[in-house]
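Think of the structure tokens as a kind of shorthand, similar to the way a musician reads notation: each symbol stands for something richer, in this case the local conformation of the backbone. In the example below we present two proteins back to back. Begin with the first one, reading the sequence and then the tokens, and try to describe in your own words what changes along the chain.
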Amino acid sequence: MNVYSRWMMDTSGQQFRDMMDRLMRSDATWTEVNLPWAPEFWTALTPETLARLNPHWEIARCDGETLDVHDHLLDEPLTVRIRMHANHVSWVAEIEPLGVALMARSHADGANTLFTSSGEPPMQANVPAEFRGKWAFFWLRSLREYLRVCGACGLSGAFWRLFMRRCWLTMTPQQRRVSLFLVKFTVIEMILIVALGLGYWLYLKF
């Protein structure tokens, strides 16, 4: 049993269970992600992996739940603590002192997964409150894609899981942007080469 599993069994996780219970009874907007609920995915998720799924964060140091990151949305260094709780039907992550909480739960007897986010005024003075929504939107979108990749079957799924874990999640935001640009440029270049080759072949034929 790892340190995160031990923590989830500790009574300190009660506040996160209470948070989920309140959200279940509230008017929180839950978004369907059209992916089946995978309890093993949520119990295996670590604070470091969740932090790396934030597309605007560059990880400088990770010590369990506490991380030093550079936020490229704010262009500011931050020290954050990510505390998570997961069980067979729900998952909660609280990011302190940013005032952001991310949540997921099972829906339709596990046939679907729902996402939502919650926030309180951030305790860190240099973090504007309006950034909570931006963080949550991009973070949950990235989390959904990681959930999709981890649930994919076959050789293709295994390849993309390996790529995400060994390459993509280890990159900085700048490296990811450069990689995407190079991939798009290469695809366009290949399309142009095929188009020119086809045009030349048609010219010679007719």
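Once you have a description of the first chain, move to the second and do the same.
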Amino acid sequence: GILADEMGLGKTIQCIALMAMMLERKVMGPFLVVAPLSTLPNWISEFKRFTPEVSVLLYHGTQPERAKVLKQIRRPQGPLGMCPVVVTSFEISMIDRKFLQRIQWKYLIVDEGHRIKNLNCRLVRELKTLPTDNKLLLTGTPLQNNLAELWSLLNYL
């Protein structure tokens, strides 16, 4: 789906609430959030603030650091015994696509979804290869210039 609320209306919080609800319904993940590098600290802090019981892993840093995190993704963790929510950047999702493809994600959330408005860009191609049961795009601007951009978002879904 597409969550296209305007900036400042709480798209991040709505996604966190969605994952918390899924956990209540025994959907134990793993979940993947792909976002701009500048927003990763915000995603981590919002999870800790609103759902401290949810296990969240930052998948970023050097290749050896990411390899350590990768080993933890399929392991049940925390008080809920869940697979974690993994938060990563667009760039790392493309660099480590082959590793991330090995995991069947319950939910793939793409923050700033308008970044994939070009159907032929590398990011779209790479994200399409990730196996997931559900996809959600977050964007305050689903339609910026023309209908082709909206078509690209819908086609990704």
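Compare your description with these statements about the second chain. The CA atoms of residues 50 and 121 lie 34 Å apart.
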